[in-house]
Amino acid sequence: MSDAARSATLARAVVLLSGGLDSTTLLAYARDAGFALHALTFRYGQRHAIEIEAAKHVASRFGVRAHVIVDIDLRVFGGSALTSDVSVPKDRTQSEMSDGIPITYVPARNTIFLSFALAWAEVLGAQDIFVGVNAVDYSGYPDCRPEYIAAYERMANLATRGAVEETTPVRIRAPLIAMPKRQIIELGLRLGVDYAMTSSCYDPSPSGAACGRCDACRLRLDAFAAAGVADPALYA
Predict the structure, then answer these.
(1) Residue 35, pLDDT score
(2) 38, 65 in Cβ contact below 8 A?
(3) What's the pLDDT tens digit per position in 82-95?
(4) For residue 6, is pLDDT > 70?
(5) CA gap 196, 38 in Å, rounded
(6) Is the pLDDT of residue 172 over 90?
(7) Which of 51, 163, 173, 209 is most enclosed, with most CB atoms within 10 A?
(8) How far apart are CA 96 and CA 128, in angstroms?
(9) What does the DSSP 8-state code read for residue 74?
(10) At what angle do helices 215-227 and 181-190 cross, to 10 degrees?
Protein backbone atom coordinates (compact mmCIF):
# COMPACT_ATOMS: atom_id res chain seq x y z
CA MET A 1 0.00 0.00 0.00
CA SER A 2 1.35 3.44 -0.91
CA ASP A 3 1.86 6.14 1.74
CA ALA A 4 -1.03 8.11 0.25
CA ALA A 5 -3.35 5.12 0.37
CA ARG A 6 -2.28 4.28 3.90
CA SER A 7 -2.88 7.86 4.96
CA ALA A 8 -6.35 7.78 3.45
CA THR A 9 -7.32 4.82 5.65
CA LEU A 10 -6.37 6.47 8.95
CA ALA A 11 -9.16 7.33 11.36
CA ARG A 12 -9.74 11.07 11.54
CA ALA A 13 -9.44 13.01 14.77
CA VAL A 14 -10.00 16.63 15.75
CA VAL A 15 -7.29 17.95 18.07
CA LEU A 16 -7.71 21.16 20.04
CA LEU A 17 -4.41 22.99 19.51
CA SER A 18 -3.58 26.16 21.41
CA GLY A 19 0.13 26.18 20.62
CA GLY A 20 1.03 25.55 24.24
CA LEU A 21 3.03 22.77 25.84
CA ASP A 22 0.12 20.44 26.61
CA SER A 23 -1.74 20.75 23.31
CA THR A 24 1.46 20.30 21.29
CA THR A 25 2.25 17.13 23.22
CA LEU A 26 -1.34 16.06 22.61
CA LEU A 27 -0.96 16.52 18.85
CA ALA A 28 2.20 14.42 18.88
CA TYR A 29 0.39 11.75 20.91
CA ALA A 30 -2.55 11.63 18.49
CA ARG A 31 -0.19 11.35 15.52
CA ASP A 32 1.73 8.56 17.23
CA ALA A 33 -1.57 6.78 17.89
CA GLY A 34 -2.17 6.65 14.13
CA PHE A 35 -4.82 9.31 13.61
CA ALA A 36 -5.23 11.62 10.64
CA LEU A 37 -4.92 14.99 12.35
CA HIS A 38 -7.31 17.92 12.01
CA ALA A 39 -6.21 20.75 14.30
CA LEU A 40 -8.55 23.40 15.70
CA THR A 41 -7.28 26.68 17.17
CA PHE A 42 -9.22 29.64 18.54
CA ARG A 43 -8.57 33.36 18.30
CA TYR A 44 -10.95 34.27 21.09
CA GLY A 45 -9.71 37.70 22.16
CA GLN A 46 -7.03 36.31 24.46
CA ARG A 47 -4.26 38.69 25.47
CA HIS A 48 -1.69 35.94 24.76
CA ALA A 49 -2.63 35.71 21.08
CA ILE A 50 1.01 34.97 20.25
CA GLU A 51 0.05 31.35 20.92
CA ILE A 52 -1.88 31.32 17.62
CA GLU A 53 1.36 31.79 15.69
CA ALA A 54 2.86 28.99 17.76
CA ALA A 55 -0.08 26.76 16.86
CA LYS A 56 0.49 27.47 13.17
CA HIS A 57 4.13 26.40 13.45
CA VAL A 58 3.21 23.27 15.40
CA ALA A 59 0.48 22.27 12.95
CA SER A 60 2.88 22.71 10.04
CA ARG A 61 5.64 20.74 11.76
CA PHE A 62 3.31 17.81 12.45
CA GLY A 63 1.79 17.79 8.98
CA VAL A 64 -1.85 18.05 9.97
CA ARG A 65 -4.37 17.49 7.19
CA ALA A 66 -6.20 20.68 8.03
CA HIS A 67 -5.72 23.48 10.53
CA VAL A 68 -8.75 25.66 11.19
CA ILE A 69 -8.43 28.88 13.19
CA VAL A 70 -11.82 30.01 14.49
CA ASP A 71 -12.49 33.65 15.36
CA ILE A 72 -14.77 34.24 18.32
CA ASP A 73 -14.52 37.18 20.72
CA LEU A 74 -14.98 36.31 24.36
CA ARG A 75 -13.96 39.84 25.30
CA VAL A 76 -17.62 40.79 24.86
CA PHE A 77 -18.21 38.93 28.14
CA GLY A 78 -14.85 39.44 29.88
CA GLY A 79 -14.79 37.76 33.27
CA SER A 80 -11.16 36.67 32.97
CA ALA A 81 -7.72 38.25 33.09
CA LEU A 82 -7.12 36.65 29.70
CA THR A 83 -10.06 38.39 28.01
CA SER A 84 -10.18 41.74 29.82
CA ASP A 85 -7.92 44.44 31.26
CA VAL A 86 -7.69 42.70 34.64
CA SER A 87 -4.06 42.07 35.58
CA VAL A 88 -2.68 38.55 35.23
CA PRO A 89 -1.57 37.26 38.66
CA LYS A 90 2.22 36.95 39.02
CA ASP A 91 4.67 35.28 41.40
CA ARG A 92 2.08 33.09 43.10
CA THR A 93 3.22 30.16 45.22
CA GLN A 94 2.12 26.58 44.58
CA SER A 95 -0.31 26.80 47.51
CA GLU A 96 -1.78 30.03 46.14
CA MET A 97 -2.18 28.48 42.68
CA SER A 98 -4.02 25.50 44.14
CA ASP A 99 -6.38 27.61 46.25
CA GLY A 100 -9.63 28.27 44.39
CA ILE A 101 -10.35 29.15 40.77
CA PRO A 102 -8.07 31.97 39.54
CA ILE A 103 -9.00 35.04 37.52
CA THR A 104 -7.23 33.49 34.48
CA TYR A 105 -10.11 31.00 34.18
CA VAL A 106 -12.12 31.90 31.06
CA PRO A 107 -15.81 31.17 31.71
CA ALA A 108 -17.02 28.09 29.81
CA ARG A 109 -14.00 28.17 27.47
CA ASN A 110 -13.54 24.41 27.11
CA THR A 111 -17.28 23.92 26.65
CA ILE A 112 -17.24 26.45 23.81
CA PHE A 113 -14.12 24.95 22.23
CA LEU A 114 -15.38 21.38 22.46
CA SER A 115 -18.69 22.41 20.88
CA PHE A 116 -16.85 23.70 17.81
CA ALA A 117 -14.70 20.56 17.77
CA LEU A 118 -17.83 18.41 18.01
CA ALA A 119 -19.41 20.20 15.03
CA TRP A 120 -16.28 19.75 12.89
CA ALA A 121 -15.89 16.12 13.94
CA GLU A 122 -19.46 15.44 12.86
CA VAL A 123 -18.80 16.96 9.44
CA LEU A 124 -15.57 14.98 9.09
CA GLY A 125 -17.13 11.73 10.27
CA ALA A 126 -14.54 11.64 13.06
CA GLN A 127 -15.30 9.83 16.29
CA ASP A 128 -12.34 11.12 18.27
CA ILE A 129 -11.80 14.58 19.74
CA PHE A 130 -8.55 15.18 21.60
CA VAL A 131 -8.28 17.84 24.29
CA GLY A 132 -5.18 18.59 26.33
CA VAL A 133 -6.78 19.28 29.70
CA ASN A 134 -4.81 18.38 32.81
CA ALA A 135 -6.16 17.84 36.33
CA VAL A 136 -2.81 17.52 38.14
CA ASP A 137 -0.55 20.50 37.48
CA TYR A 138 -3.21 23.08 36.68
CA SER A 139 -4.71 26.19 38.20
CA GLY A 140 -8.00 24.81 39.46
CA TYR A 141 -10.06 25.21 36.29
CA PRO A 142 -13.39 23.36 36.62
CA ASP A 143 -13.44 22.39 32.92
CA CYS A 144 -10.18 20.45 33.23
CA ARG A 145 -11.56 17.75 35.53
CA PRO A 146 -12.26 14.11 34.57
CA GLU A 147 -15.91 14.50 35.62
CA TYR A 148 -16.33 17.34 33.17
CA ILE A 149 -14.82 15.40 30.27
CA ALA A 150 -16.99 12.36 31.03
CA ALA A 151 -20.11 14.52 31.24
CA TYR A 152 -19.32 16.28 27.97
CA GLU A 153 -18.85 12.97 26.20
CA ARG A 154 -22.24 11.77 27.46
CA MET A 155 -23.84 14.98 26.19
CA ALA A 156 -22.08 14.73 22.83
CA ASN A 157 -23.49 11.26 22.30
CA LEU A 158 -26.98 12.64 22.82
CA ALA A 159 -26.46 15.60 20.52
CA THR A 160 -25.05 14.30 17.23
CA ARG A 161 -26.62 12.39 14.37
CA GLY A 162 -23.79 9.89 14.10
CA ALA A 163 -24.04 8.98 17.76
CA VAL A 164 -27.84 8.70 17.75
CA GLU A 165 -27.72 6.54 14.60
CA GLU A 166 -24.88 4.54 16.17
CA THR A 167 -22.55 5.04 13.20
CA THR A 168 -20.01 7.41 14.76
CA PRO A 169 -20.25 7.57 18.56
CA VAL A 170 -18.15 10.37 20.02
CA ARG A 171 -15.06 9.83 22.16
CA ILE A 172 -13.56 12.77 24.03
CA ARG A 173 -9.95 11.78 24.58
CA ALA A 174 -7.93 13.50 27.31
CA PRO A 175 -4.78 11.35 27.59
CA LEU A 176 -2.83 13.96 29.57
CA ILE A 177 -5.47 14.54 32.22
CA ALA A 178 -3.80 12.54 35.01
CA MET A 179 -0.17 13.27 34.13
CA PRO A 180 2.06 15.64 36.10
CA LYS A 181 3.45 18.22 33.72
CA ARG A 182 6.91 16.71 34.09
CA GLN A 183 5.58 13.46 32.60
CA ILE A 184 3.88 15.40 29.80
CA ILE A 185 7.21 16.96 28.88
CA GLU A 186 8.97 13.60 29.01
CA LEU A 187 6.28 12.09 26.79
CA GLY A 188 6.59 14.93 24.30
CA LEU A 189 10.36 14.61 24.14
CA ARG A 190 10.02 10.90 23.39
CA LEU A 191 7.60 11.80 20.60
CA GLY A 192 9.98 14.35 19.09
CA VAL A 193 8.32 17.58 20.25
CA ASP A 194 10.44 20.71 19.99
CA TYR A 195 9.12 22.79 22.88
CA ALA A 196 10.87 25.88 21.53
CA MET A 197 7.88 26.13 19.16
CA THR A 198 5.37 26.37 21.99
CA SER A 199 3.99 29.32 23.94
CA SER A 200 2.49 28.93 27.42
CA CYS A 201 2.69 32.42 28.96
CA TYR A 202 -0.52 34.25 29.94
CA ASP A 203 1.12 37.67 29.63
CA PRO A 204 3.92 37.58 27.04
CA SER A 205 5.82 40.64 25.83
CA PRO A 206 4.94 42.13 22.42
CA SER A 207 7.84 40.12 20.97
CA GLY A 208 6.37 36.89 22.36
CA ALA A 209 8.86 36.42 25.20
CA ALA A 210 7.32 34.69 28.21
CA CYS A 211 7.07 36.64 31.46
CA GLY A 212 8.33 33.78 33.63
CA ARG A 213 6.08 34.90 36.49
CA CYS A 214 2.45 33.99 35.68
CA ASP A 215 0.94 30.68 36.80
CA ALA A 216 1.42 29.09 33.39
CA CYS A 217 5.10 30.05 33.27
CA ARG A 218 5.74 28.93 36.84
CA LEU A 219 4.14 25.54 36.26
CA ARG A 220 6.06 25.11 33.03
CA LEU A 221 9.43 26.12 34.49
CA ASP A 222 8.96 23.88 37.53
CA ALA A 223 8.06 20.95 35.26
CA PHE A 224 11.11 21.36 33.04
CA ALA A 225 13.29 21.59 36.14
CA ALA A 226 11.72 18.39 37.52
CA ALA A 227 12.37 16.67 34.19
CA GLY A 228 15.98 17.79 34.29
CA VAL A 229 15.68 19.56 30.94
CA ALA A 230 16.21 23.21 30.07
CA ASP A 231 13.09 25.00 28.85
CA PRO A 232 13.90 26.19 25.31
CA ALA A 233 11.23 28.92 25.37
CA LEU A 234 12.29 32.56 25.24
CA TYR A 235 11.78 34.39 28.53
CA ALA A 236 11.86 38.15 29.11
Answers:
(1) 98
(2) yes
(3) 999 999 999 998 88
(4) no
(5) 22
(6) yes
(7) 51
(8) 35
(9) G
(10) 60
Beta bridge partners of 69: 41
In angstroms, rounded to a whole number, what is the distance separating the alpha carbons of residues 218 and 224?
10
pLDDT at 8: 66
Q: Domains plus CATH for the chain?
A: 3-227 (3.40.50.620)
The band of 98, judged by pLDDT with boundaries at 50, 70 and 90, is confident
Cα–Cα distances (Å) from 227 to 24, 74, 183, 211, 224, in that order, read 17, 35, 8, 21, 5
CB 104 within 8 A of CB 147: no
The answer to whether 5 and 41 have CB atoms below 8 angstroms apart is: no
Q: How are beta strands 12-16 and 66-71 bridged, if at all?
A: unpaired
Contact 185, 196 (CB under 8 A): no
| Backbone phi and psi for residue 127, each to the nearest 5 degrees, phi listed first | -90, -25
Enter the pTM of the model: 0.94
